[in-house]
Amino acid sequence: MPIRVAVVGTGAVARGQHLPSLAALGDRVEIVAVADVDPASAESAAARFGVRARYTGLDELLATEKPDLVTLATPPIAHKDAAIAALDAGAWVLSEKPPTLSLADYDEIASHERENGPYAAYVFQHRFGSAAERLREHVERGALGRPLVARCDTLWYRDPSYFAVPWRARWATEGGGPTMGHGIHQMDLLLSILGEWTDVTAVMSTLARETETEDVSFAVVRFASGALCSVSNSLLSPRETSQVRIDFELATVEVEHLYGYDNAHWTWTPAPQVDAATAAAWPPTENVPSTTHAPQLAHMVAAMEAGVRPRVSGDDGRRVMELAAGMYKSALTGRPVSRDELVPGDPFYASMAGTDPREATARIHAGTIRASHGEAAARG
């Protein structure tokens, strides 16, 4: 029998990704309902994609349709409550990024999961392109040697009108700025390849946009392997690019794209000592792009059929949230942050802004972050 799916939120992301990607899975799934607080949006999405039922409330949808899977294409502030309601109703969840507004919210959702499902997973589709999958295989086997140096850049451009949408770049509704809402995709791709991180040093500022949060962030991240990585996130960059580059002992592997890649966006450069035949075998033979949600949805459906936890859920989905929290804590406190600090009781476990969102905004806007780093350096 097909997996019965409900799509919550019928805006651009649902229409551009969730609904067509589900349709691409054919008879493996059946889209039984859509929901949106705007009745006209729900109605038009249902008509466009041939969905029988449409709702303005999730509780009624869950009680009436009893879906197996709920996908969330709503603003971030709505993720936690909707995910918990779906899990409690026995439905698996696939939610858009950022997963939640805080680590505390993430863990609260996880507490509603059950053994063998339902589970909540999160949309990070760049993990699922064939080149990223192939690279992870090489890393797991040690075929490229140790990772040494990496770079992770999300340099995008959003004009002032972008921030007129009320929930964007607000601590209470998006959780943060480009670190949470934009760069988190490339950061998750990086972490899925390099694994566990140990500590981070970051700076942030608001240089050109009227927001509560940062419009630029930079960080240096240390991994358990010893590798060092620079991370940059910007919404002020006219030449937009998304890039992950990793220098291993035996190769440099790099992807540069914007909102999605295929194999042509990747380069595999061998070190001088590597023979041509070995290097020629590194890239994947199939070409699965990361431009749609379909590969991740196919994985999600397969996990549901097998009754196993999907990727990008549990600890695997939490890792990038920890890194984001570590970056905000480092930038706002002016010191390096260890991953093991980010536990219940820490202010940045409960909120990316720490104890006082207004103070966080003031510090980012005033440039006192740079001053605090300078003072810390002067103190030794």
Automatic annotation (TrEMBL):
SUPFAM superfamilies: Glyceraldehyde-3-phosphate dehydrogenase-like, C-terminal domain, NAD(P)-binding Rossmann-fold domains. It comes from the Bacteria. Residues 3-117 form the Gfo/Idh/MocA-like oxidoreductase N-terminal domain. Residues 134-249 form the GFO/IDH/MocA-like oxidoreductase domain. One of its GO terms (molecular function) is nucleotide binding. Keywords: NAD. This is Gfo/Idh/MocA family oxidoreductase.
